[in-house]
Amino acid sequence: MRISALLFLLFLMICFAALCLGAIHIAPADVAAAVSSAIFGNASGTSEEELILFSVRLPRILFAGIVGASLSLGGVVFQALLRNPLADPYVLGISGGSALGAIVGIVVGASSFYLGVPFLAFCGALVTVFLVFIVAGGPKGVLLDNSLLLAGVVVNAFFSAAILFALSVVNSMELHSISFWLMGDLSRASMKEILGAALCFAACFVLLYAQARKLNLIVQGEETALQLGVNVLATKYLLLIVTSLITAVAVSFAGIIGFIGIMVPHMMRLVFGSDHRLLLPAAALFGASFLVVADTLARTVLSPAELPVGVITALCGAPYFIFLMRRKERG
User: Residue 274: is it exposed, middle or buried by C-beta count within 10 angstroms (0-12/13-18/19+)?
Assistant: First the structure.
């Protein structure tokens, strides 16, 4: 509880700093005064600074926090099930499958229906999980060797080709926005999307946290878990479905943001150990903080222009991925 409280305090401090930074710098004292006025109901909401803070920056910061926490949770679950620190939704192709489903939804006009695009993204994530199992050897269980990671790379390459094909048939006006979204775009966050993503994250987090003890036992050994009364196969399928859902919602709203699911869970596991009752909330809170920092860099490094946040996470994640590969080989 203390660790989660400290990480939540860190998240609040990072959010406050992110509110101050941008193309237009706002002094910390002015941000504090505006936030205080908003909390106590004294904000007019008409000044330029208040419009920037509460209509542009705050929704984007909240959205980044939810997406970062969602992707980090996905990484925790996949790394535990596969017993491999290199596993995450991005590497396994689930992010790519979700993106393809979302793009299909955009092309066919599913965005005109409430949650139409996230639903198709979820379907794409489930199809990806099934295909990865088939390529790796069969859908009867999660394989605990590198064949599943290799299968994820193969399936991810296939979906990347399918995404390029989909981009080649859309009209030119949609092409730029979809291409930018594919690299990670948090700039179009609306309160409706933020609320939907937050509700999905909360529900999925409760389901995953309820399985934390079983996940600990599965990591220790499937035979031990079976002897202690855990239905291993049912637990794995539940975890995969919930993780696919939370990943699909994040990707459908924010695009493909890679490597968070690798870096954050591994860092938290090194610092706090592998007890998932602590690891799940710690990874969620630190992942939220990490993506808020990355998004703040993305919109300030080339200000007033901005980079896709996926570029920042890739610049951080690619060297870390190489470090993990070398460390795993030495181990």
Answer: middle
